[in-house]
Design brief:
The protein has about 270 residues and is an alpha/beta fold. It has helices at about 15-25, 50, 65-70, 80-95, 105-115, 130-145, 170-180, 185-190, 240-250, 265; strands spanning about 5-10, 30-35, 60, 75, 95-100, 120-125, 150-160, 190, 205-210, 215-225, 230-235, 260. The two termini are about 30 Å apart.
């Protein structure tokens, strides 16, 4: 196991954190080099396997990212924007491959991540699944083929615990549609409709968000014209698809030149 790349998981107690821990530990392609949680978390100082209700995995949960990064080659990070920015700076210092699945990142966060990518490999994507990234490419191609007589609406559904909207994946899809049309998403985006909104503006790209239950992730891209619709859909039923994609990304990044990449690069799309 010593010759396998060591991967650190941040936010190890979360939904994605637990899935990542299990995926890495069982992969045979990487070793679990560290698990990070916030200071004061009850898992600190305990074996991650036992914390998750299983057998010991030989990795103790820590709140010291520098210590965890010291013996690793990569970090997979599905946490929160402020934490991700901090991890990006530390990962750049340690020259780790940093895979970022965190959503809700604002311009100020993205600027700091871009700065970190000058020194280390960063793979950042709103969604790590193969199917979603194929959907992104299809959305771009169809948007390029259809004119503004076709309205574009991105509809997404997630579990009740998700705190940001639109989802990172929905934004990926909206951006793909905008790129296909040769416009900036910021100039065409409409979300959060309420009250008397008036008629739909020609060329706008709309977003609708549903939150409820334990929905892992559902995304529809609707192209609607008079008399017909084209609907592209991706349904995620298991978070393991995101964990497998993230592992693939962190392994792909080993030995690459510093810079910021996405899953299109990883998948060769």
């Amino acid at each position: 196991m010593g010759d396998l790349p060591g991967i650190v998981v941040t936010g190890a107690s979360g939904r994605m954190g637990r899935m990542l821990v299990g995926t890495i530990a069982d992969s045979g392609k990487a070793r679990l080099a560290g698990c990070i949680e916030r200071a004061g978390h009850p898992w600190i100082g305990r074996d991650i396997g036992e914390c998750m209700g299983g057998a010991p995995l030989g990795t103790v949960v820590t709140d010291d990212a520098l210590e965890a990064f010291a013996g690793a080659q990569g970090v997979v990070d599905f946490t929160a924007p402020a934490a991700t920015v901090d991890f990006a700076a530390l990962a750049a210092q340690a020259r780790l491959v940093h895979v970022i699945g965190t959503t809700g990142l604002g311009p100020e966060h993205l600027a700091k991540i871009e700065a970190a990518s000058r020194h280390a490999v960063i793979v950042r994507a709103g969604n790590m699944s193969l199917g979603v990234n194929l959907l992104v490419r299809l959305t771009q191609k169809i948007a390029a083929a259809l004119d503004e007589d076709w309205d574009v609406e991105v509809v997404e559904a997630h579990h009740r615990m998700k705190v940001d909207a639109p989802s990172g994946t929905a934004l990926m899809l909206g951006r793909a549609a905008a790129e296909g049309r040769g416009v900036k998403l910021e100039d065409a985006m409409v979300s959060g409709r309420d009250g008397i909104t008036g008629v739909r503006e020609r060329g706008s790209i709309g977003f609708s968000a549903i939150r409820g239950g334990d929905v892992v992730g559902e995304h529809d891209v609707i192209f609607a014209a008079d008399g017909e619709r084209v609907v592209l859909r991706h349904l995620a039923t298991d978070r393991a698809i995101f964990a497998r994609g993230a592992l693939r990304a962190v392994l792909w990044g080993q030995g690459r030149k510093p810079g910021q990449y996405d899953m299109m690069d990883v998948l060769g799309l």
